[in-house]
Design goal:
450 residues; alpha/beta; Dihydrodipicolinate Reductase, domain 2; Rossmann fold; twelve-stranded mixed sheet; 13 helices; 22% strand
Length: 450
Amino acid sequence: MSKHEFTRRDFLGATAVAAGASIAAKTIRVPAPLFAQQRTVAPSDRVRFGMVGVGMQGSGLLATSIQIPGVECAGAADLYDGRHVLAREIVRADLPVTRRYQQLLDDKSIDCIVAAVPDHWHRRIVVDAVSAGKDIYCEKPMSHTAADGVAMVAAAKKSGRIVQIGSQRVSSNVVAKAREMVASGTLGDLMLVEGWLGRNSPTGAWEYPPPSDLSTKNLDWDTWQGDVTPKRALDPNVFARWRCWKEYGTGVAGDLLVHLISGMMAMLDINEAPRQAFAVGGIRHWKDGRNMPDVHATNYYYGDLPVYMRLNLATEMPETYRIQGSKGILEVRGDGLTFTPQSGNDDYPSYYAYSFPKAMRDAYFAKWHAENDARVAKEATSETITFHGRDYDDVEPHLANFFNAVRSRKPVVEDVVFGHHAALACHMANESYFRKNVVTWDEGRSAILG
């Protein structure tokens, strides 16, 4: 997670303050997440998980998971031996480690899997896990292609296992508050949704430094490449920066757009694919051999609602949504939200009246003020609602929701269908970019059409 995404640490005890020019303010208080209220778990309710992928994101998920009460890591799998060392540093010196995740699936003492692997491995690991009777938490985006997503949904439904996708915005208290406001009609009729996120650093553009000791002796490079053809010789930069290539990743869409999309879906109570998408962009700054764009902007239709999302890896922009309604604007950021109401009424006489002759104009002005001055004065005291809080880690409650579901068999907050729909928006953005045309999602054919 970068500083441009939703902020991470403890969000408890947050308070609200008034925004600048408003005359009245409304305080919002958000309850503590349920996981924070349950700090002890009976030994019989202990959940044992296997970790697949101990890279940048996986190491963080592993470290966070073992801090959740009643959760224990029983083993870790990674194709690079250096991450076996890392997993043991995080958990314990004698943690079982392997290059073959199938060993974790065969272990009857392991209840579930947490997977953080390159996108082109998501389908195989999820399908293998649920087919082996394991629940699984899989990092976002759920799928590498639309067809992969369809296969993953089918496998999860057939198995009846729990699948949680790791777009943790849906577990954010800020998103929950925004969802509550939208559902209550605070914004009125929805007109347009905008979202944006930008970075301006080599690390933000995935220019990660590869491990210095990589070789075919300590990395199963052939297996890492999966079914991608043709095979290439070991390239440490491809190993570390796989998001840059469509053969292995889904680019800025799968890394960043999926956060914006899943957060918007949660706030607006949407669980469907976009009807239509049209994207523009290009490789405008990071000319390093990548084939995925570093600037990517996409216009969608969700039903008849226009949605515009833009991403940039060379200009920093904090992750922000602007949800526009007939009663005002809701702006949602990582550390809070602000709703600025709009009455939708004239606050002063129409300037068109200046085209009237003087006598007619004066009569219009007098009548308008007599009928509207009291209303305008009352509307001037309308509330601007602003919520601010301390940094909040939405990864921990998202993981906790998964582990609690493994125990209780209750639904997770981001199941395989929601994850599939969020990923489809990313695949449509990429397909539109590469085809240079409008694309649509055909539910009957389960395909993206140009």
